[in-house]
Automatic annotation (TrEMBL):
Transmembrane segments: none annotated. It comes from Ostreococcus tauri (Marine green alga). This is Metalloendopeptidase family-saccharolysin. One of its GO terms (biological process) is peptide metabolic process. Keywords: Hydrolase, Metal-binding, Metalloprotease, Protease, Zinc. One of its GO terms (molecular function) is metalloendopeptidase activity.
Length: 673
């Protein structure tokens, strides 16, 4: 589909995508990619030089990754169900193909004979070491019989994790309420059963209105109990077996535990460092937690009387909503200042001026008429295209229903030619209506858009020579990307800008008066940013500590001088650190996706990223009155975004900061330092 307006012609390096693709074409594309990849790996297994082993494999990874987006993108964006399903099958097949690479002993042995040290330059050497490490993590260095046992265990693990997640996705538990029991909640959103009871499911959009607005504490309690016990009967044993298998596999590979195995290639490096980070923050957050609980308790006492009793888990969302309402944030009013088209233009323009870039909308072939394609160049200096991004912002039937950035092509060089990266920002923002009234964004949507665009920049500006160092995450089948606990750092740092008054003034424009957001609303928004953070952080830390504990080896687990099994220790840690009792007989881990989806021993990473992002942002804060300092923005582009995974996260931080990274800016923002 072509866009008719007068757009700049698409540069020759623009990737092409089309919606005119059939399930059988997807299947033959998948086979073509797999054949070419297989041939390259077979050749690499007989190679005798760096170029014919490591080099050959890295090139094959780059080319197969590049080709894979045409197979996998329709699963996220196509309107036809059969095409989406074919695309998902293709994605699974490519994932198995890429994963299978690192179990191949003959390729590993050929590389081991040549050695990563023979790489022609530092970046190639780092990529070679990455390959060796991945092979070793898949047992290619073990004897053949042991590798077979390891593969069996890994296979069992994969099956358990996928049935764990499927059980949650397929869970149809509903909690039935009379309309009186749902006083305070808009009941029309829920189906009725034959007796006229309203049925509320356990997914967030169904459940949250009850937790936030149901006046009756008994109603919220029933919801909280159902959620805490979700899938407990089927998933508890799966979880215990998964943890056991993970620790066994790690020990076979010479690690003390799964946590040690997982953290070795990350920025944190060791479970001890991650745990220390969490404990340091916990101590600091404690005072704020007490204050938060006092605020919530006061609201509870006011509403329920002096015998209301202490705050319970089912009170938190309800009284938090009430507490936030006292801060003067008028969401409906604020929304009128954020018409989509203005916000979009201003986000693009803020990024261009901050990072010294020019975005040009180009006439590329795209997969839907709503989709826009942009090329990215330096604002001055060399005029090579650095990369491409697509904006696919509006919902359509069959399209992925959340916001995300999906990489379409890694930045890499093969046969002396550099291929610039490409990605798409997939959104679900409301479309302007036909009567000319603009689509208005909630502030949360503005913030997410700004954050996601940070990922776009990180992806597109990558100058990696090997695809394994380009921007990627687990949504795409190909291997590589930055350290998992660093992945969010660059975009979380950029997200800080959206909270700055000078940026808010720029992003806002009342849809009818054209005025910027008034100062009183900006102040109210700023005040709300850290609201009840003490509770939220403490709760998060308790879950992250549990994750590290169970993945740190077999139990029993010691906590506060007592020994517990993995079920009791979860309830003890969360209740003790968040100071709110857990629900009797429940094991909420049975419906917790993260630990089954690549974030095992990695939940700490979100907080970790946020803390280091705050440190990076402190350099911009030092430039007040204007935090949008273009010289510093360019330095950020060159030292944090462009290197992508070619430099370790720790090193990028100290290169940019000119000092060791510090937690202090984050603690200051939380108001606990
Ligand atoms: Zn993100």
């Amino acid at each position: 589909m072509r866009v008719a307006d007068a757009l700049a012609p698409a540069p020759s390096s623009t990737p092409t995508f089309t919606d005119r693709v059939t399930p059988s074409e997807i299947s033959s594309m998948t086979q073509r990619i797999a054949r070419a990849y297989e041939n390259a790996l077979s050749e690499a297994s007989t190679g005798t030089t760096w170029a014919t082993t490591f080099g050959k494999t890295l090139d094959a990874l780059g080319r197969a990754s590049e080709a894979s987006a045409s197979v996998t993108l329709p699963s996220m964006t196509h309107g036809d169900k059969a095409t989406r399903e074919a695309s998902t099958r293709g994605k699974d097949a490519l994932k198995a193909m890429f994963d299978g690479t690192f179990a191949r002993r003959e390729v590993y042995q050929a590389m081991a004979r040549v050695g990563a040290d023979s790489a022609p330059n530092a970046e190639a050497r780092r990529a070679s070491e990455y390959l060796m490490r991945e092979f070793e993590r898949n047992g290619a260095a073990l004897d053949e019989a042991s590798q077979k046992v390891l593969m069996q265990k890994l296979g069992e693990l994969e099956e358990l994790c996928s049935s764990f997640c499927a059980a949650i996705n397929e869970d149809t538990t509903k909690v039935a309420y009379t309309e009186e029991e749902l006083e305070g909640v808009d009941v029309t959103a829920y189906d009725e059963d034959e007796q006229g009871a309203r049925l509320v499911g356990l997914i967030a959009p169904d459940m949250m209105p009850v937790m936030q607005f149901a006046k009756r504490s008994e109603s919220r309690k029933r919801m909280a109990e159902a959620k805490a016990r979700q899938c407990q009967d089927v998933n508890t044993d799966r979880f215990l077996r998964v943890v056991e298998l993970r620790n066994e596999c790690a020990r076979m590979l010479g690690y003390k535990s799964h946590a040690e195995y997982m953290l070795k290639p990350k920025m944190a490096r060791t479970p001890e460092r991650a745990e220390q980070f969490l404990r340091d923050l916990l101590v600091k957050a404690r005072g704020k937690l007490d204050g938060d609980l006092k605020d919530l308790q006061q609201l509870k006492d006011e509403e329920e009387g002096p015998d209301a009793g202490p705050i319970q888990s089912w009170d938190v969302a309800y009284y938090s909503t009430k507490f936030k309402a006292t801060l003067g944030v008028d969401e409906a009013k604020i929304r009128e200042y954020f018409p989509l088209e203005h916000v979009k233009q201003e986000i693009l323009s803020t990024y261009q001026s901050l990072l010294g870039l020019t975005f040009t909308r180009v006439d590329a072939e795209v997969w839907h008429e709503d989709v826009e394609c942009y090329s990215v160049r330096e604002a001055d200096g060399e005029q090579n295209v650095l990369g491409f991004f697509y904006l696919d912002l509006f919902p359509r039937p069959g399209k992925y229903t959340h916001q995300c950035v999906y990489p379409l092509r890694p930045a890499f060089a093969a046969d002396g030619e550099f291929t610039p990266a490409a990605c798409v920002n997939i959104g679900n923002l409301s479309k302007p209506s036909a009567d000319g009234k603009p689509a208005l964004l909630r502030f949360r949507e503005v913030e997410t858009f700004f954050h996601e665009f940070g990922h776009v920049m990180h992806c597109v500006l990558s100058k990696s020579q090997h695809s394994v160092h380009a921007w990627a995450w687990s949504a795409v089948p190909w291997p590589g990307g930055v350290e998992q606990d660093f992945l969010e750092v660059p975009s979380m740092m950029l997200e800080n800008f959206v909270w700055q008054p000078e940026v808010l003034v720029r992003l806002s424009k009342h849809y009818s008066t054209g005025e910027s957001l008034p100062k009183e609303d900006i102040d109210a928004l700023s005040a709300s940013r850290g609201a009840l953070e003490g509770y939220a952080r403490s709760r998060f830390i308790s879950m992250a500590l549990f994750d590290l504990a169970v993945h740190g080896g077999p139990g029993p687990y010691e906590f506060e001088g007592q020994k517990y099994d993995s079920i009791d220790v979860y309830n003890r840690i969360t209740a003790s650190l968040s100071k709110i009792p857990s629900i009797d007989g429940a094991f909420p881990v049975a419906s917790w996706f993260h630990l089954m989806m690549g974030y095992s021993a990695g939940y700490y990473g979100y907080l970790w990223s946020e803390a280091f992002a705050a440190d990076l942002f402190s350099e911009f804060e030092a430039k007040r009155p204007s935090v949008c300092d273009p010289a510093l923005g360019r330095k950020y582009k060159d030292m944090i975004l462009a290197p992508c995974a070619t430099v370790a996260g720790d090193d990028m931080l100290s290169n940019f900061l000119g000092r060791e990274a510090s937690l202090n800016p984050f603690l200051k923002r939380m108001g606990v330092l």
